């Protein structure tokens, strides 16, 4: 008689992976979680909000996973998966409250799958949100053996009258940029085309190790700023770089003038550009050292930068906002 295992799906390995994942999930539980992994759905109680609005976002890790396959290191890309989602919903002042992940593979290895979810749990802890559910799909014949795909879904909450939507931005406001941790999780198809030897030395480590550096999660420091300052708009610098993402923070037509010499560029970006990428393409693809941007009044900028420094974040006054077309001008 034919069995599911004969087709390439190992249910027992799936049970084993779930058991390992439950431990990581439990470490993320915050007040509001009503049940753990294993139910048909995750449940979260909103608690005391006057007029709550749920804010959601979904994303994946992309071809950065190829670097993880090469390095055989799977416990950091889960952080990227969380970061790409929670940093997006943070742009509207929402506090992430729970996260769900999706992992797909050709042949399930419980250790690899649990390492992926270990990274997710670490990202959730950094975001102060709970991992309350997910799905692991074994799909033989669809994915190559040894390769995985990963995506996630985050839900946050904000009071309706406290949502940050860019409506308060005015001519003369300024831009504060918070440093990134490196390439984050965008532009890896280009990176892999240009950097073919991941084992080669780069600044005392391999290119593979450098490129696996997890995406920085900005939730805790930025929410602290939101509680104490008038943050008018925010942008997560992901795919599309400066040119696509900064204008997304404006509700009306404003031009962002960015001083490209106002912040240091991580050496990895200088290296990529030397391999034949134009400066315009770099700023249209990568974060160039700034992973998150705040729009604030000029009189608040220095206090905000100092507060970020107190919280261990490097931040810079990178530009200003003027009435005009919805675009970015580098100077």
Automatic annotation (TrEMBL):
Q: Catalyzes what?
A: 2-formamido-N(1)-(5-O-phospho-beta-D-ribosyl)acetamidine + ATP = 5-amino-1-(5-phospho-beta-D-ribosyl)imidazole + ADP + phosphate + H(+)
This protein's record includes keyword Translocase = no
Q: In which pathway does it act?
A: Purine metabolism; IMP biosynthesis via de novo pathway; 5-amino-1-(5-phospho-D-ribosyl)imidazole from N(2)-formyl-N(1)-(5-phospho-D-ribosyl)glycinamide: step 2/2
- Organismal lineage: Bacteria, Bacillati, Bacillota, Clostridia, Eubacteriales
> Which gene name belongs to this protein?
purM
Q: Which organism is it from?
A: Clostridium tyrobutyricum DIVETGP
User: GO annotations under biological process?
Assistant: 'de novo' IMP biosynthetic process; adenine biosynthetic process
Q: Where in the cell is it found?
A: Cytoplasm
Q: What class of enzyme is it?
A: ligase
Q: What InterPro entries has UniProt attached to this entry?
A: PurM-like_C_dom (IPR010918), PurM-like_C_sf (IPR036676), PurM-like_N (IPR016188), PurM-like_N_sf (IPR036921), PurM_cligase (IPR004733)
> Can you name this protein?
Phosphoribosylformylglycinamidine cyclo-ligase
Record's PANTHER family? TRIFUNCTIONAL PURINE BIOSYNTHETIC PROTEIN ADENOSINE-3, TRIFUNCTIONAL PURINE BIOSYNTHETIC PROTEIN ADENOSINE-3-RELATED
């Amino acid at each position: 008689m034919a069995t599911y295992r004969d087709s390439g799906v190992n249910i027992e390995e799936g049970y084993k992976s779930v058991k390992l994942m439950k431990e990581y999930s439990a470490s993320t539980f915050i007040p509001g979680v009503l049940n753990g992994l294993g139910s048909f759905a995750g449940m979260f109680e909103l608690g005391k909000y006057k007029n709550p609005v749920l804010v959601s976002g979904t994303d994946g890790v992309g071809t950065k996973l190829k670097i993880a396959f090469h390095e055989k290191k799977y416990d950091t890309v889960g952080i990227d998966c969380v970061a790409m989602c929670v940093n997006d919903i943070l742009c509207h002042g929402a506090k992430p409250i729970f996260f769900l992940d999706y992992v797909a593979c050709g042949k399930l290895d419980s250790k690899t799958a649990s390492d992926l979810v270990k990274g997710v749990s670490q990202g959730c802890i950094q975001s102060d949100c709970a991992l309350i559910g997910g799905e692991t799909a074994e799909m033989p014949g669809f994915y190559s053996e040894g390769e995985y795909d990963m995506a996630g879904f985050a839900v946050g909450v904000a009071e309706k009258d406290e949502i940050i939507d860019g409506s308060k931005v005015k001519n003369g406001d300024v831009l504060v940029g918070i440093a990134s941790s490196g390439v984050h999780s965008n532009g890896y198809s280009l990176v892999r085309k240009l950097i073919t030897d991941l084992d080669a030395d780069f600044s005392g480590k391999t290119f593979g190790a450098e490129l696996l550096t997890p995406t920085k999660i900005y939730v805790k420091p930025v929410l602290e700023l939101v509680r104490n300052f008038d943050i008018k708009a925010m942008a997560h610098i992901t795919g599309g770089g400066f040119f696509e993402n900064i204008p997304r923070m404006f509700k009306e037509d404003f031009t962002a003038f960015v001083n490209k010499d106002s912040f240091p560029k991580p050496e990895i970006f200088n290296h990529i550009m030397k391999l034949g990428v134009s400066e315009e393409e770099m700023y249209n693809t990568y974060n160039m050292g700034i992973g998150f941007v705040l729009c604030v009044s000029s009189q608040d900028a220095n206090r905000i930068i100092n507060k970020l420094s107190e919280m261990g974040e490097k931040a810079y006054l990178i530009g200003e906002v003027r009435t005009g077309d919805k675009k970015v001008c580098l100077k």
